[in-house]
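Go through this pair.

…
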Amino acid sequence: MEKFKEKLQSLRAAADSTNAQADELEARVKHLKSEHIAKDHEILSLQIRVKNLEERLEKTEGQLKDVSTKFSEAEEKAEENESKVASLDRELEEKEKLHEELKEKHVAAKSQLDDMSRQFDDM
């Protein structure tokens, strides 16, 4: 009977040990499930953040494209305007030169006219 009690006590101790181990493992499983849920939430949060950043990137790239296009158009317009300014400067120089020539001819013609007028007066 003594052996039976020892065996029973040994089995109870083994059962208690196994139950304690099972409790620890259940607690570990519960903890791991909790971590898994937390990681799932973190992944979902990061996926949402990535999606938002991708949308912002797409929007920013579109804005960059628009700004680049407008800059190119403005640069082209500036080149056209510089060309027009250069052309107008050349035209202005030509007109000023012509004006000076006509002014000189006018002065010469006036001088001739004055000389003729004096000659007629002297007659």
In short: The chain has a mean pLDDT of 95.
